[in-house]
Design brief:
There is one protein chain. The chain is an all-alpha fold. It has one domain. About 30% of the residues lie in helices and about 0% in strands. It is built from 2 helices and no strands.
């Protein structure tokens, strides 16, 4: 990514963050995997931007 940005200094490079790597979400996943909260049926996360890419 850095090399590509250096080749095209006129463009804007945007890097998205996957929520599963954010510290609070990573901690939640750890708690769930360790079985500390019982059987989880569903987890929902709302993005704070329009999801413009097909996932």
């Amino acid at each position: 990514v850095i090399a590509a940005a250096q080749r095209r200094p006129e463009i804007v490079v945007q890097v998205g963050l996957e929520y599963r790597y954010m510290p609070p979400v990573a901690r939640l996943l750890s708690i769930v995997k360790d079985g500390l909260v019982g059987q989880v049926k569903m987890v929902a996360i709302r993005e704070h931007r329009f999801p413009f890419l097909v996932k």
